Structure formats: C-alpha cells, structure tokens
Amino acid sequence: MVALSVGVVGISYGALGRDMGLDFWQVVLLAGTVLGAASELLFINVIGTGGSPVVAVLAGLMVNSRNLAYAVGAGKFLPSGWRTALGAHLVNDESVAMALAKEDKEKQRATFWLVGLGILVAWPGGAALGAWLGSVVSPTALGLDAAFPALLLCMAAKPLRNKTTLLAAIIGAIFTLVASPFVPAGLAPVLALLGVGVVYLGSKRRTRVSA
C-alpha cells in the first residue's frame, strides 16, 4: 500500500514535470536518482516558475536534509558493506518510519528493504507513467496539479499542532510574503526557513534569561 501510494504521487510528479518543460528522460532520471518526492516536486515547481536552477537545487537539498535524521535511525539495523550504500539511497520517510515501528532488528531490516525497494520501483515507475500522461493531456485537466500542495499539507498537518513549529511556520510565511516581490522566482519559499532560525534564537534567549 505504501509503494502504491507513492506511485500515485509519482504520476502527479511526472505529469507536472513534463508540464514544466522537462523531457521524459529527465523526469524519470531525477525520480530514480533523488528518490525524494517533496524535494523533486519543489525542484520542478521552482524551475517551472522561472526560478534559478541553483535555487531549485538548494531548495531540494534543504527539504531532503531531513533524511540525515532518518539515516541515524536506519544505521541501527542496516548491515555494513556494499548494502549500506544501497540502503542509504533507500532512506526516506516511509521506509524508515515503517521499519522503526517493528520490534526487533531483523523485522526492522526486512521491513526497510521491502518498503525501500518497493518505493524504488513505484516512484520512478509512477513518474514514467505521469510523464507519458503529461505529454498526452494537461495535468490540470486530470487534477494532478493539486497533488503537490496536498502532499505538503499532509506532511505539515501533524507537526503544525506543535506551538513552536506553528510559530516558525507563521514567521516563515511572513518572510516569504514580504520577500516575494523583491527576490528571484523560487527563492521566497526558501527564505521561509528563516522562521526556524528566529524561533530557535528566541528560545535560546529565553533560556539564558531564565537561567
């Protein structure tokens, strides 16, 4: 079910990638090498809105930096050797979350490989299907253009219940809105990350005062 869901989002990504001007092979190659839905969708949206490729890459890297934390969790049950390199490529939200939900290391390892390899097939496969559909019919006609904001909303819904996270998001949104008329296309959403810095510095200052 996890791989199937990822494949459906992959269809949206592939169709949008073609609509944004990417070639079929570029869409599929990006899907297979990056293997990160949110970062790839953000990348093609920055490119599609006229943003700089450098900004698009930096934005994608920032979004995918969360995999560093996932890698720490996965390192506890992944074997050493050549399989570690493949395992690193399969580290993502779904594979690590499903694995860590299991009780022992053997089950964690088996679940990680099952989900990770499933996504490795489903995501590029869905992207290829979406890229083909995107060359035949507009993503807007299929409603696929709504998949990206829907995905981000689903990812953000639970974390935003935390007051600190919500405050950082609000401050980041203000930075984005204020900066949008003055910065190159695609850079304004990246500046939203300043909200995290403001909240972090504020919390550090409160800690020193209370101490």
Which key phrases capture this entry?
211 residues; mainly alpha; 13 helices; 0% strand; flat
Describe this protein's structure.
The chain is mostly helical and 211 residues long. Helices cover 76% and strands 0% of the residues. The chain is built from 13 helices and no strands. The model has no long low-confidence stretch (mean pLDDT 79).
Shape call: flat
What is the average of the pLDDT values? 79
**Low-pLDDT stretches:** none
Q: What Rg is obtained from the alpha carbons, in whole angstroms?
A: 19 Å
Helices, by number, come to 13
How many angstroms separate the termini? 50 Å
Largest sheet: none
- Count every beta strand, where a strand is a DSSP E run of 2 or more residues: 0
| Relative helix content | over 70%
> Pairing-aware structural class of the strands and helices?
mainly alpha
Topology order in helix (H) and strand (E) letters: HHHHHHHHHHHHH
- Portion of residues in beta strands equals under 5%
